[in-house]
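Batch manifest, entry 17 of 40.
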Amino acid sequence: MTTSELQLFKAAFLQSWNAIVITDADAEAGYLVQAANPAFCAMTGYSLEELRGGRLKCLQGPDTDPQVIDRMRRCLKEARYFEGTTTNYRKDGSSYIVHWTISPVRDNDGVLTHFVSVQEDISSAVLAERENRLLARALDAASDPVVLTDSHAHIIFVNTAFTQLTGYTLDEVKGSTPGVLHSGQHDTHFYETLYQALAKGEAFRATFINRRRDGSLYHAEQSISPVSDEKGRITHFVSVSKDISERVDEEQALRYAASHDPLTGLFNRRHGEKLLHESYHTAAGQRTPLALVVCDIDHFKRVNDRFGHPAGDRILSSVARTLRNAVRGKDAVVRWGGEEFLIVLDNCTTAAGLDLAERIRKRIEAHRDDEVGTVTLSLGLATLQDGESIQQLIARADAALYEAKRSGRNRTVASVSG
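Output type: structure tokens
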């Protein structure tokens, strides 16, 4: 080896970023240090003078893994390559985690003369890895569902709460997008708003209606936030949600109870008046026809008196079903009071209203209750006139109903003028 080559190796040894230490091969003496570069001295806190001629056992301490040390000794005894990781201790007593390799060095005759060890303090990396594992465990232990995606919205992590809520495991959704949860209940505008917010680096919060693996739907308060690197580039998205299905069901039940008659399931009078006002203002503003049908079960008091209120309730429910099934989907059927019902027919002419009312009357007449027998219905129809108020419209429909009853019941009468 030339002088220049020796100088090159010496420079590489001294200037290497990795810590390097060279020991002899004397097992009985304990593999004494022959040389150590500045990086090794800086990592351990020992000077070269303190290290030379001594054993590296001085770096071991309470948390040094004895199994790793035993494996290292076997490799040294057998002159084999070694690689390991454990906790070492500096001169000042502070600990660090080291990853190191040891290679045997032989002379030209193949005789083992030394060992050279290249070492690296990996404390920061191990700490970061531990923190990441802790974070992952914390996210997995969170009671609310968490989803982490890459910048292209491909799922890379979901926690246990997500699996419990949706039925999907990480293996089933990893690599796919959150689109697997789409229920079809949101329009394109909803998702456009979401994408625009995230593209601008803003968080998006909304109530989502999602679909579980078994096809059932659930409501979730969900926030989706972009995660950026140190240069401000979006690298991931994190979603945290909360299952609010029970709350939504309770709210819907309360809204239903507030707007529906408990016996018949029809709109109650209070909500019916609200719907009637909405229809009235639409018809008046757009100059479209609006028809109102008021109907009443004939001789209903006799039913209650003769057969009792359970039978009367059964008749009310039966009539309500017939009314609901007879009208169009956009029409409102209201239990106006007692045995009286109101039907609001948007965009419906007098002729169409009369045709519908007659169909209803005939269906009621054709139905026979096993206990009560046949019941009939009287109906009054009024169509909104120019400049007419809601009260006037209702009064004309009531008057038409009164006329139907006065004329013998089980008939439809229309009032076409004020």
